[in-house]
Amino acid sequence: MKTYRFGIIGAGLMGREFASAAARWCHLTDLDARPELVAVCDMNPALFPWYTGHFPSVRQTTTAYQELLANPAVEAVYVAVPHNLHQQVYCDVLAADKHLMGEKPFGIDLPACEAIIAATRQRPDQLVRCSSESPFFPALQQLCGYIEQGAFGRLIEVNTGFLHSSDLDQDKPINWKRRIEFNGEYGVMGDLGMHACHVVFRAGWQPRNVRALLSDIVKERPDGQGGRAPCKTWDNATLLCETLDPRTSEPFPWTLKLQRIAPGQKNNWYVEVLGTQLSARWSSVQADVLEVMEYHPGVPQAWQQIQTGYDTAFKTITGGIFQFGFTDSIQQMWAAYLHELAHGQPKKPFAGCVTPDEALLSHQLFTAALESQRRAATVALATDIAS
Known about the structure:
single chain, alpha/beta, Rossmann fold, Dihydrodipicolinate Reductase, domain 2, 2 domains, 6-stranded parallel sheet, 10 helices, 17 strands
């Protein structure tokens, strides 16, 4: 089995999730590549003992990411840092001749993303991908299989979103995602958007224009020092896009909802595809259930529920009768990245990580959404999804 030695830059929540997925690599049964964690970087040294205590392979801890990049033992790097740092750190990773998995949105704004894309073009032998685990739930993999088969017929509409209520508490202290200098003007779109775009972009469904309604609901929050700090990022976003299906060359409406203030929602990803022959919908609220409705003239229309169980893109030791969860989706995403590292291509289209070109398309969409909000008008996107 081929081993790829990894470093982590940004040792917080998602860094620990990657490390945990790597520690459980024996859970996967059909991969011929595995990650080994050898180096960790964070500005907060208090995070290091968790890594060194659980991973004897970690031989370097540092507060300077340049030191990690200079380590010849590190072959690939996972970067999970605030958006304002993406351009510099990602480009430095590439310049150091390391493979890269970067967190969304791949830059604080469109120029930053374009600079990262330019750096990837100069390093074609390095695998560069963006983190998004949502399509790896088995029920959503089955829905994506219908997309590959062209089973929906002509698309009537598509609805996707990512909703949670983490910011409903107006006394929750402000953090970097609520500060425009760190998170960027996109606000919730940069924070959550890729999860709701991943399936649509991978399907090749191309947004032609967007009308955006963005909401700044909580204007200020506690600053942690007894005062109040202004919140200058968008809390919620609803985007209506005229979108083209390249299979039929016909347009359809795609509605994209991203909300950090969604009463009643804990952490809900959802995808709904309505077509003239088949419709299907999935939500992470009932993660192992796929709802499907076939249309036959003269036959009553009825949604059926399919419990998909543990039928994953990358096989595991877990029996198919059991349920799948968030940590499983993280490991499946990393299995997709390691498979592509080892074989040069995804196992199948919807079992692949977000590409730099798909990340760029998200920036083009969100930049147009900001302009739409400013003008209260529909704004066109002059772009194509690159292969």
